[in-house]
């Protein structure tokens, strides 16, 4: 889809000032949608940013803009839209997208789920790719997009929408809603409840299935314009727990190193300021595709912990700790250890009950059990449920530096 056509479909009109660079930093949905539509109608390079960024991300963003002069993009040119990636886990980057990658993502979604019109309740923020695509699926198919604050949903205030439609949640949001019968009843009436943004633990999925919630596990990221693999709700309710099959607009392969590779129409055009048309992109995710074509994601290769020669995948440890009921949320990292090379450290929200470490780690192998437990407040988790591991590493460095090697 050409940029001008995308703008027309969104009802956008260009600003007469014809800026060469537009930065969108909005939390209120109506203002975001109006700003995005207007920006799409112009010829400027467009940056979508997170208004909740801390000092680190804002400093990185300003440095990027200062080091790279604005470029005038022609209407329809590839890669005019910059979506943030990596800002909560390391160095901030912007993945280039455009009308073609976004429209392909919408069409692939329609074909995979066999739907024409898409109606959605938007709980995730629009400045995140999952929230943005939830809106665009509705806007480009003639559907209705209903933005709704997560705090309202959590409090039992549900939007007045017809049965059907979809909603996207992160695992911790699903967990909280499953504790309320009224919320379960509301979720049961959705056509699909997409769950992504982080690994969902087995006990959570079992509870959702037992409650009859039509969960659709999905896999995707900023660089792929949101989901490129998804499980259909009927498959989930029948017992399947993978990320499902590849959507028709994408290609997924697992290479010899076990890393997931993605190709096809939704793939980003390179990291700004570079512009590259990629045939295939190697992610940092480890996975496998079975004989049925279903994708299972094992975790991130670059997050692997090597302790005493043993490999520990943080996602597996986090799932076990959550399933124990001892922690509401948790993040597991490898930290330096003079004897073992790395040690397993578990970070959890401070200010609440201290977890029983023995019970929490009972289902884990000895080398998987956390050696260090650290309460952290405020808990560095954004609206998409993603935890800033970079912040947790700084917490570790500060506390370990103050207390020495025996810190725990």
Task: Explain what this protein looks like in three dimensions.
Helices cover 30% and strands 25% of the residues. Strands 6-5-7-8-9-10-11 form a seven-stranded mixed sheet, sandwiched between helices. Strands 1-2-3-4 form a four-stranded mixed sheet. The protein has a four-stranded antiparallel sheet with strand order 12-13-14-15. It contains 13 helices and 20 strands. The chain folds into three domains: 3-97, no CATH class; 99-266 and 278-300, ANL, N-terminal domain (Rossmann fold), CATH 3.40.50.12780; 304-403, 2-Layer Sandwich (GMP Synthetase, Chain A, domain 3). By secondary structure, the protein is an alpha/beta fold. Strand 1 (21-24), helix 2 and strand 2 (45-48) form a beta-alpha-beta unit.
